[in-house]
Amino acid sequence: MKRRARAREAVAAYGLLAPALLIFAVFAFYPLWRIIWLGLHLQNRTGTAQRWEGPSQYVDVLTGDEFRDGLWITTQFVLLTVPIGVVLGILLAVVANRQLRGMRLFQIIFSSTIASSTAVTAVIFFVLLEPSIGYLSSPWIFDLADPDKAIYGVALTGIWQNLGLTFIITLAGLQAVPEDLYEAARLDGFGPVRSFFRITLPLIAPTLLFLSVALTVFGLQAFAQIDVLTSGGPAGSTEVLVFKIFNAQDPLNLGAGSVMSVGLFVVTALVAALQFTILERRVHYGD
Amino acid sequence: MATDTVVPTGTTRGAPRWLRNTGWYALLTGLSLMVLFPIWMLIVRALSNPTTYVFDRGQPPYPVDIEWDVFARAFDEADFGRQLAISVAATLVIVGGQLITSLLAAYAFAFLRFPFKRTLFAVCMATLMLPIEVTLVANSRTIRELEWLNSIQGLTVPFLATALGIFLIRQGFLGVPRDLRDAAALDGFGHLQFLWRVAIPLTRPVIAAFTVLSFLSAWNSYLWPRAVTDTSEWFTVQIGLRAVSNSTADELNVGAAAALLAALPVLIILILFQRHIVRGLTAGAVKG
């Protein structure tokens, strides 16, 4: 009887899991297998026949200019958006974490950029960065028409759009710091600057790490702002990895696109693994 | 957002309180201007008559020769109405689907005992490593093979389940006291009855937080709708904004108005559900 009940519970469980597992199987795991497989093949023009190309295609694509170029531009985007984004997030959160009349309004303002999708943000900065007439457009730094500088304009949209999220998460981290620590620090004669660097920063380090990784992953996946603002140009100077993958969906480029997808997967997984390792250590250390 | 924490600073030393507060407000205002300036300029650009604004007045930081009908023109000329309908339909299907699949799966993981439970949970969580950017080329082929290009199925089906929802709702369910389950079992509640009458009402905050996150990502998604639509009839609001990049200086106001309209539903949701979104976004970010 007991065993019967067990079996019925298991059947119910599998029934409840079935819808989610079906979607995951068809649209997450099958495609993973498929990009690996497609990466080993070449397609004909219509995608109706394929030829075994073997692991050499992986070597060719991953060491080729296209992938390296995309990865480098993506890295630039990440390096331009993440550190500045985290620092600005800390600044906003520290300034807003204080009991003052009307602070809620400022908190809403600082969070407000999460209402702006990447495409909306791209339009906002399209207006501001229109070559020659946009407000922020200048030949010095934000110049979407200059292959050497277009990435700065694209990165600016990323920094601004992430502000709200960075602010919300950092503020939550600040508010989790126990009050009495500051009290004790003050009694020890710590000024505000010293207690920020000696108490606040170490205690919110796990939050900041989480944030940095999340922002890095967003950066690795950047696409919409480039598609709207520059279409990868000028002269391909803003073709990040996902942009190159997007443009390699037709049968003739599918093999290369698949290899680049596997490359993106590995890079993303490495970043996530790195975060996990550091976080583990950090948390134990913090305890 | 809780404001009951005070960052203590040396309260007795340095400048008098009123002066420090004034300085603080100045800082807050400055930072607010930095955050709001881009949005303000979008509003200015949308409302101003483009010819007067750009060519006669050299783009001042305030609206000139205001034309309120620009929003109506976004509907007429930029086909915003149709895009809105498609965005709303796709978002509703995705959010509804994610809620159903996540609630059911989370229920199984939280309350039932069955073989391979840990393995299956790990399998679900592993999909977090497979975002649409990675699976794009393969999934778009699948959609082509199913002949779902330019269709509501194509826009939504790959997103009908999400590890994030399963994870968050399972966390909520694990907080439901055991005695309640035993009591419900005594009352002869079946699984779905227990889910609907006990588990869901008790975890409403978590479910709300997840719903808001799910809405945001569905409404704002760009890469996938861009990949599986190739006629403007099936463009979502976000994809429609892409046309802005081809507009000339004297028609950019219509695109700017469309962008404002695209952000409006999100803004409303955020103001109404601010608490939930903060809880959802910070889940996992802050320890304890």
Helicity level of chain B: 55-70%
User: So how many helices of chain A?
Assistant: 11
Oligomer: heterodimer
Q: Largest interface, counted with CB-CB under 8 A? A: A-B, 106 and 98 residues
What general form of chain B does the structure show? Answer: globular
- Any idea what the CATH superfamily of the largest domain in chain B is called? MetI-like
Q: What class, by secondary structure content of chain A?
A: mainly alpha
Beta-strand percent range of chain A: under 5%
Total strands of chain B: the figure is 0
Helix content of chain A: over 70%
Integer-rounded radius of gyration of chain B:
24 Å
The count of domains of chain A is 1
Can you tell me the CATH superfamily of chain A? MetI-like
How is this structure best described in words?
The complex is a heterodimer of chains A (287) and B (288). Chain A is an all-alpha fold and 287 residues long. In chain A, 72% of the residues lie in helices and 2% in strands. Chain A has helices at 2-38, 56-63, 65-96, 103-111, 118-129, 150-175, 179-187, 192-220, 224-229, 241-246, 254-286; strands spanning 41-43, 50-52. Chain A has a two-stranded antiparallel ribbon with strand order 1-2. In chain A, helix 1 (2-38) packs across helix 11 and helix 3 packs across helix 6 (150-175). In chain A, 43% of the residues are buried. By secondary structure, chain B is mostly helical. Chain B folds into 2 domains: 17-67, no CATH class; 77-282, Orthogonal Bundle (MetI-like fold). Chain B has 15 helices and no strands. Chain B has helices spanning 17-47, 50-56, 70-77, 80-111, 117-126, 132-145, 152-156, 163-174, 178-186, 191-202, 204-220, 223-228, 237-240, 252-272, 274-282. Chain B starts with 16 loop residues before the first helix and ends in a 6-residue tail after the last helix. At the A-B interface, helix 1, helix 3, helix 4, helix 5 and helix 6 of A face helix 1, helix 4, helix 5, helix 6 and helix 11 of B.
